[in-house]
Amino acid sequence: MADNHSKEIRSMNMSHIRSKDTKPEIIVRSFLHRNGFRFRKNDKRYPGKPDIILPKYKTAIYINGCFWHMHDCENFVWPKSNTDYWTNKLINNKNRDVKYHEQMKENGWHVIVVWECEINENRLYKLIKEIKGISVSVETDTYSN
């Protein structure tokens, strides 16, 4: 199936997709800051440049878009055009995520993944408990496949 847009329009659309300071990231950061957490964002010293680094809690938070990181939810749908490109790109993204999370854990960091589709008030309060190490059951897929 052919793309619905010309190469120029597709290029312009793709150029407007942010890699940092996305709406989900801003929501999570604002919530954490309002609740007294201080953090670094997108720190290049760590594998995968985690969206949020909380050194005090030795915790890295990755805020993932459901499409770009292949979350098993209704927000992820395989593209119908240029399927070879997208299959390769998305699988590489997922594999890279696994590698970065493992590297962080090997270095003693606690890794938390927050999915774009699950950001709500309840999830944000559970996030605080996860950061502080309070036992909480959170149904979060962290690529355990």
From TrEMBL:
Molecular functions (GO terms): endonuclease activity; hydrolase activity
Gene Ontology BP terms: mismatch repair
Family affiliation: Belongs to the vsr family.
Keyword field contains Transferase: no
EC class (word): hydrolase
Stretches of the chain forming a coiled coil according to its record: none
Physiological role: May nick specific sequences that contain T:G mispairs resulting from m5C-deamination.
Highest classification ranks of the organism: Bacteria, Bacillati, Bacillota, Clostridia, Eubacteriales
EC code: 3.1.-.-
Native species: Ruminococcus flavefaciens
Protein's name in the database: Very short patch repair endonuclease
Sorted UniProt keywords: DNA damage, DNA repair, Endonuclease, Hydrolase, Nuclease
